[in-house]
Design goal:
By secondary structure, this protein is mainly alpha-helical. It has two domains: about 90 residues, Alpha-Beta Plaits (2-Layer Sandwich); about 100 residues, no CATH class. The chain has six helices and four strands, in the order E-H-E-E-H-E-H-H-H-H. The protein has a two-stranded antiparallel sheet with strand order 1-4. Helix 4 runs antiparallel to helix 5 and helix 4 packs parallel to helix 6. The chain binds iron/sulfur cluster (2 copies). The site of one iron/sulfur cluster has 13 residues, from helix 1.
Length: about 220
């Protein structure tokens, strides 16, 4: 049977921790992949079910699958065997593997995780702002020629549509550049939307008030 194997020299946890968050077999109290003291991702082989999904999500191509001879039962099976153990008196050689000890985050791991989260937050904010700015410019050009007296454009609703698009498209962009969005809550998405709205509003009103650029 196969299990995931991390090539430590390639693993760059400071930039992602993606496999740790991603592994579908991981449970909060029993992670299949965790960040070890050496700040590298580490697989608990007894819990890995060999699905291979983590191989595809590692940006550093640090995860490979390897065959192991005496692969113990996956976690679910292990728990089942454990429950049955008292009545069946399992022989030592057939005994269920002990579940991996609950992993407690060390200060170094915490620091690496915080750093990774911070980098991701900065990237997400930058994307929201750049999209907002571009949406503001697009709104200015697409909303029609500005009235010379009132300063109003005839189709402001187009600007709103552009703003909505700039907000909605962020999820897709994050997925394309492989930013983990599984942990993003309503607050995070609200923040993304707000930053896009703020920069959109600023750039559009700035264009309107200065009218430096010609209309199309
Ligand atoms: S996804 Fe790859 S680079 Fe990122 S922590 Fe896991 S093994 Fe390391
Ligand atoms: S192979 Fe599957 S179960 Fe094993 S660590 Fe990777 S994602 Fe998790």
């Amino acid at each position: 049977m196969q299990v995931a194997y991390i090539r430590k020299e390639k693993c760059n946890t400071a930039m992602c921790n993606r496999c740790v968050k991603f592994c579908p077999a991981s449970r909060k109290d029993m992670p299949v992949i965790y960040i070890g003291r050496n700040k590298k991702a580490t697989v608990v082989e007894e819990l890995c079910n060999g699905c291979g999904k983590c191989v595809r999500i590692c940006p550093e191509k640090a995860i490979e699958m390897k065959f192991i001879k005496d692969k113990a039962a996956p976690a679910a099976e292990a728990e089942e065997v454990k429950q049955e153990a008292p009545s069946k008196q399992t022989a030592p050689s057939q005994a269920a593997p002990a579940p991996a000890p609950k992993h407690k985050e060390t200060p170094e791991e915490k620091k690496a995780r915080k750093k990774s989260e911070h980098v991701n937050r900065v990237i997400r904010t930058a994307i929201a702002c750049v999209l907002g700015m571009l949406a503001g410019l697009a709104s200015f050009y697409l909303a029609g020629p500005m009235d010379a007296v009132t300063g109003v454009q005839p189709m402001p609703v187009i600007g709103l549509l552009v703003l909505v698009l700039a907000i909605v498209i962020q999820k897709t962009i994050f997925m394309i550049i492989r930013i983990d969005i599984s942990k993003l809550g309503k607050k995070d998405w609200f923040y993304q939307g707000f930053m896009t709205f703020a920069t959109w509003f600023l750039s559009w009103t700035m264009m309107l008030s200065t009218s430096f650029l010609p209309h199309v």
